[in-house]
Design goal:
It contains 17 helices and six strands. The chain is an alpha/beta fold.
């Protein structure tokens, strides 16, 4: 054993935990987010390296090296290859892996308890079981979210008596968990317990509509953090405990904020079936017609405007148009136009999706504004340019009491003097809800791929001299 290892290991874990906290705090601002990611990465490296000299590691170094190697290569490859369009899927997948890892730790430790290799007090057993439930739900739930975002399965999947079946499965999971705590784990009971918990994660996620995926991803992130914190206690690993609890707390707060941004409770997100396209959801359909505009006329409007607000949505990500939009912005600013970006909290497919895209293109942070900061500016805005956004700019949230999104805070683009919507076609958005904005008198539709349209706008403005 290395001299002083009993001091080195906990000290290193404590330092890693402090760096995790600092890194997470730095991630709260776009200005310091990159630094926060680097600090958190260094903290993870410290925690991994010190584990090799942990007194409880019993010579499994080869397996550890193989696991670290496979994980590192896989993460590096996906980070390099996955497009920004698919970033929400990758986040959901990685999130699920964290929950699955926590559940695996619970399974291994409970099996060790069964075989007599370890001893646990009642509190530790309870936390191991709770971590197993939460981690399993986060694992399979995140995989379902990934499949929906990837287009591998339907956005919603409902059947008769679904909520009752979900309740029964959860009840069975809790009963099996209680049996593990009271009478001790055995392989059969443990297998049934984890099978039930994994099934619960699937069943609770399949009915949730695609429009709620940002909230769902945030929720499962919080659950993964909580599960890791619990299993950190089981392993008596301070770094896991602190990092898991901090991530769980931050994820819980983010989930609440995002649900509030949609004017809905978390229970409504999980159980109300928002995003279901049926006759009720289609009540109050828009009347009138969509009026088109060509890129040349749109370029003239924007070039001679005093103030333009750009509202990015998922269509921007699909077209990978962020760089062209920034080029368009710079061109407008060179002509004296005041340009700002308006971001809705749930725009895109994951928390902060639009912020990440704009940061990648080099858009300065002082041009990017949240809903609360910029909504008052729309009535004095000459042109609001909406690029691929849908529900977050839908006036039905204010005007149509029968709409599933009624009461949801939106970006008030319909109050601008002119609104230009860049859209690939006339269909509804990801949630399947008709957008009343498209039929407003001051709205014109500019159809086409966002990147190609942005280039057309750039060319049109340049041709004006």
């Amino acid at each position: 054993m290395i001299p002083g290892v009993d001091f080195i290991v906990p000290a290193a874990y404590f330092i890693a935990a402090v760096m995790f906290i600092y890194g997470l705090k730095a991630m709260s601002s776009p200005v310091t987010a990159r630094r926060g990611i680097l600090w958190s990465g260094v903290a993870m490296l410290v925690a991994i390296l010190v584990t090799f000299i942990h007194p409880k590691v019993e010579g499994n170094y080869l397996l550890m090296i193989i696991a670290i190697g496979l994980g590192s290569v896989g993460a590096w490859w996906t980070a390099r290859r996955v497009a920004m369009t698919d970033m929400p899927q990758m986040i959901a997948l990685y999130n699920g892996m964290g929950g699955g890892a926590a559940a695996a730790i619970a399974a291994v430790e409970l099996l060790k308890l069964y075989s007599g290799q370890v001893t646990m007090d009642m509190a530790t057993i309870i936390l191991a079981v709770l971590g197993g439930i939460i981690g399993s739900v986060a694992f399979t739930g995140s995989l379902i979210a990934f499949a929906k975002l990837q287009g591998w399965m339907r956005k919603t999947w409902r059947f008769g008596g679904q909520q009752l079946i979900n309740l029964i499965v959860f009840a069975i999971t809790l009963v099996l968990g209680a049996m593990l705590i009271i009478q001790g784990p055995d392989p059969l009971l443990l297998t049934l317990f984890f099978a039930s918990a994994l099934l619960a994660g699937i069943l609770v996620t399949i009915p949730i509509g695609g429009a709620d995926m940002p909230v769902v991803i945030s929720l499962y992130n919080a659950l993964t953090g909580l599960a890791v914190g619990f299993e950190g206690y089981v392993l008596q690993n301070p770094a896991m405990m602190i990092a898991g609890i901090v991530v769980g707390a931050a994820g819980s707060l983010l989930t609440q904020l995002m649900a509030k941004a949609m004017n809905r409770s978390l229970s409504n997100v999980l159980f109300a079936g928002f995003g279901k396209v049926d006759e009720d959801a289609q009540s109050g359909e828009a009347t009138g017609e969509m009026r088109a505009i060509d890129a040349t006329d749109a370029a003239i409007q924007m070039a001679y405007a005093e103030k333009v607000i750009i509202v990015p949505g998922y269509g921007l990500a699909v077209a990978q148009a962020q760089h062209k939009i920034w080029e368009l912005t710079q061109l407008l600013m060179s002509k004296g136009v005041k340009v700002s970006f308006a971001i809705h909290p749930v725009a895109g497919r994951m928390p902060g999706h639009m912020n990440v895209l704009l940061a990648e293109a080099g858009v300065p942070y002082d041009l990017i504004h949240d809903l609360e900061d910029i909504n008052a500016q729309f009535p004095t805005t000459d042109v609001a340019l909406v690029i691929g956004a849908n529900d977050v700019v839908n006036p039905a949230a204010r005007k149509d009491t029968s709409s599933p999104i009624f009461g949801m805070p939106i970006l008030d683009v319909d109050k601008a003097r002119n609104c230009i919507v860049v859209k690939r076609g006339q269909g509804t958005g990801f949630s399947g809800i008709e957008n009343l904005l498209f039929f407003e008198d001051n709205t014109r539709m500019l159809y086409g791929d966002a990147q190609k349209v942005a280039q057309q706008l750039i060319s049109g403005i340049k041709s004006l001299g």
